[in-house]
């Protein structure tokens, strides 16, 4: 009887040991979620910068020969429109990357090129103005304050006399360009006076 009980106990213990060995050891929860990669703002802007560089170069070349810029203006505006569409898909999401430097470079290059195109009419530039304004508006939604940062970084002289009123208003460059024009006018008048014209006549009559 005792021997039978001993065998039975051994079998039970063996069965329990096997169950324990077969059961997987519970892994402790780390509660550390893999960090989700945030959408990057710099990718679309970098692509835009690369795409418009040859267009701006062609615009300068065509304008120097008195050619028609309508097609190139359309391409330029189309690139801004495509990038804006990509950025619009990111609205409401948390994004990464500071777009200020790239945006400043892009806007500066466009304003600089357009500012040297005497043949560019307001009718031609209107679609481009709209595309660039939409681009800046969406970008500022994704990265609040970026238009102010770009405005501070873009030389105010680039806004002088440009037919891009929407862009200039967004960047607060319209008032600065008007002020620069007035300053230039006053400087010219003062130069004429000091040159001996009117001022010399006034002094000679005393």
Topology, element by element:
Elements: H1 2-22, H2 42-64, H3 70-88, H4 100-114, H5 122-142, H6 146-153, H7 165-170, H8 174-194, H9 198-204
Helix pairs in contact: 2-3, 2-4, 3-5, 4-6
In brief, what are we looking at here?
The protein has helices spanning 2-22, 42-64, 70-88, 100-114, 122-142, 146-153, 165-170, 174-194, 198-204. With 206 residues, it is an all-alpha fold.
Structural account:
The structure is a single chain. By secondary structure, this protein is mostly helical. The protein has helices at 2-22, 42-64, 70-88, 100-114, 122-142, 146-153, 165-170, 174-194, 198-204. It has 9 helices and no strands. The chain has a domain at 42-179. The termini are far apart. Helix 3 (70-88) runs parallel beside helix 5 and helix 4 (100-114) crosses helix 6 (146-153). The longest helix is centred in the N-terminal third of the chain and has 23 residues, at 42-64.
Sheet with most strands: none
User: Could you estimate the helical fraction of the residues in percent?
Assistant: 55-70%
Roughly what is the average pLDDT, rounded to an integer?
A: 76
The termini sit apart by 145 Å
**How many individual β-strands?**
0
Using only CA atoms, what is the Rg? 34 Å
- Spans where pLDDT lies below 50 across 5 or more residues: 27-35, 176-189, 198-203
Order of helices and strands: HHHHHHHHH
Structural class: mainly alpha
Q: Helix segment count?
A: 9
Morphology call: globular
Fraction of residues in β-strands:
under 5%
Keywords: Signal
């Amino acid at each position: 009887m005792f021997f039978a009980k001993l065998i039975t106990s051994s079998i039970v213990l063996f069965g329990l040991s096997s169950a324990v060995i077969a059961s997987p050891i519970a892994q402790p929860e780390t509660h550390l979620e893999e960090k989700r990669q945030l959408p990057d703002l710099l990718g679309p802007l970098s692509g835009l910068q690369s795409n418009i560089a040859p267009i701006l170069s062609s615009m300068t070349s065509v304008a120097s020969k008195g050619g028609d810029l309508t097609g190139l203006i359309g391409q330029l505006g189309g690139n801004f429109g495509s990038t804006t569409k990509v950025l619009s898909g990111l609205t409401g999401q948390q994004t990464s990357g500071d777009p200020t430097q790239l945006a400043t470079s892009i806007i500066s290059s466009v304003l600089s090129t357009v500012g040297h195109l005497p043949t560019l009419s307001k009718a031609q530039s209107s679609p481009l103005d709209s595309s660039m304004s939409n681009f800046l508006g969406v970008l500022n939604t994704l990265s609040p304050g970026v238009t102010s940062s770009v405005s501070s970084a873009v030389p105010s002289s680039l806004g002088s006399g440009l037919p891009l009123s929407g862009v200039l208003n967004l960047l607060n460059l319209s008032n600065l360009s008007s002020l620069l024009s007035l300053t230039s006018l006053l400087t010219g008048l003062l130069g004429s006076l000091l040159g001996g014209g009117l001022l010399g006549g006034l002094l000679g009559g005393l």
